[in-house]
Automatic annotation (TrEMBL):
GO MF term list: 6-phosphofructokinase activity
Name of protein: ATP-dependent 6-phosphofructokinase
Cofactor: Mg(2+)
Pathway listed: Carbohydrate degradation; glycolysis; D-glyceraldehyde 3-phosphate and glycerone phosphate from D-glucose: step 3/4
Chief localization: cytoplasm
Organism: Massilia terrae
Lineage: Bacteria, Pseudomonadati, Pseudomonadota, Betaproteobacteria, Burkholderiales
Binding-site residues for substrate, renumbered to this chain: T142, I143, D144, R179, M186, G187, R188, E239, R282, H288, L289, L290, R291
The protein's enzyme class: transferase
Amino acid sequence: MKIAISTGGGDAPGLNAVIRAVVLASIRRGWECWGIRDGFNGLLDPQQCTGEPVMRLDATSVYGIGALGGTILGSTNRADPLHYPVRQADGSVGEIDRTEELARLLRENGFDAVVSVGGDGSMAIAAALHDKGVRVVGVPKTIDNDLDHTFATFGFDTAVGFATECIDRLHSTGYSQHRVMVVEVMGRYAGWIALHAGMAGGAHAILIPEIPYELAAVAAAIRARDAAGHHHSLVVVAEGAEPVRGERTVLAGAETGRLERLGGVGARVEHELAGLTGKECRSVVLGHLLRGGSPSAFDRVVASRFGAAAVRALALGQGGVMVALGDGAIGTVPLSEVAGHTKTVPLDSDTLATARELGICLGDQA
Ligand code: F6P
């Protein structure tokens, strides 16, 4: 059997551990493994690739990569085969679906199956390839933890661990300076990273997209801390967190321009909390730091289990599925059930209940 591996979308710590596991588990079965560069661009747009567009992967190529961040295959979210960007005659950029062509190129290159590692976008591509007769197994990846049907995606644990370390550091500087420290973390429209890192790091307020926030509530919590003799506060904000309707009116005229230059929601919260509390506030955007670096031990193990499970699924004749972590064990879910389904923090989750019980302000109660 000749299989191709592709890593798509944003990178996440653990991608290399998946590649390593797929290659080693394939070699044990006597299969041949190849990596496609930059998502599927190695096949769709080889001249755009920085290295060999399609490369043979053997035990030597994956030696020692399990501990490395990023992906040796490269990845991109600018070349989604379902929405491939094309320049139109008038100079504007449109998009076309190139999955039919991709399925043909995979066949022409003699690939019997594909392991597609990625987030919801990659699972949608995998589902489209499956519909076009390609045997494909998906492997869930994202630091955001927003893929449905799996308890874990690799990358999340590493991101939460690093964010927690940063929050720990921000506590000591905030404490010394009697400041409000605001930390913005990634997560798209889901609050998993903010909630977990905020709780682990002992944040005093956590703002997530699932709960529209009122900064008046956060300011009241900060004032209450001050009154109790605690003159620093730490606020974690998910990048997708939104104020309740109308709250943004605090930002008038010229200030809006300044905030746009400063950045996103973290800068806005910093500015508004300074106005509401009269305290010195500072914000930090952790951004892509959360995606970089070496995967945690947990992510290395999950990624390895996912990679080996993908090969096992192919050996069992499966296709059109994503490997997923179920109740303690790895199983498979049909791609048709995964594509387009994302997972946000349930409002009735015990983690949210715990946050409230710990006295963490979630921005919804003044
Ligand atoms: O999906 C992972 C993620 O890290 C999100 O949390 C974030 O919004 C996004 O990628 C940023 O991606 P990029 O900067 O690569 O476009």
